[in-house]
Design goal:
This protein is elongated. 54% of the residues lie in helices and 14% in strands. A hairpin with a 3-residue loop joins β2 and β3. It folds into 2 domains: 32 residues; 70 residues, no CATH class. α2 packs antiparallel against α3. By secondary structure, the protein is an alpha+beta fold. The protein has a 3-stranded antiparallel beta sheet.
Length: 118
């Protein structure tokens, strides 16, 4: 009997395809830069920087030079107490918690993205 050739695990095949795609994208980007094509500009309203923390309040900077200063986490949570029903107060607190968690994650993602640029 003939032995069947060993097949590569699916993870290796996917990793190889992703690596090839990334090399192709990097080559295309380098070619575009060499050709003198203009740089990509993000649309207005794109978050470009997040500073601060939930304790001191976040400062969000958008492309196009607009800013938003958000209240602290405790101030936002205190405003939830103004709702009459328990369900609305709980919903408000969960929205505040999710919003501030997402801001922290966006801040971290922007920091990591800027590390790749250098």
């Amino acid at each position: 009997m003939w032995a069947q050739p060993a097949r590569a695990p699916a993870a290796k095949v996917v990793a190889g395809a992703v690596a090839a795609l990334l090399m192709w994208v990097a080559g295309a980007a380098a070619g575009a830069a060499a050709a003198g094509e203009p740089r990509w500009v993000p649309p207005d309203g794109t978050v470009t920087a997040v500073t601060g923390s939930s304790d001191s309040g976040f400062h969000v900077t958008y492309f196009g030079r607009s800013d938003a200063y958000l209240p602290t986490h405790s101030e936002s949570t205190a405003e939830c107490g103004e709702y009459r029903t328990l369900v609305r107060r709980v919903k408000c607190r969960m929205q505040v918690r999710t919003w501030y968690r997402d801001l922290r994650d966006i801040k971290r993602a922007i920091r990591y993205a800027r590390l790749d640029q250098h």
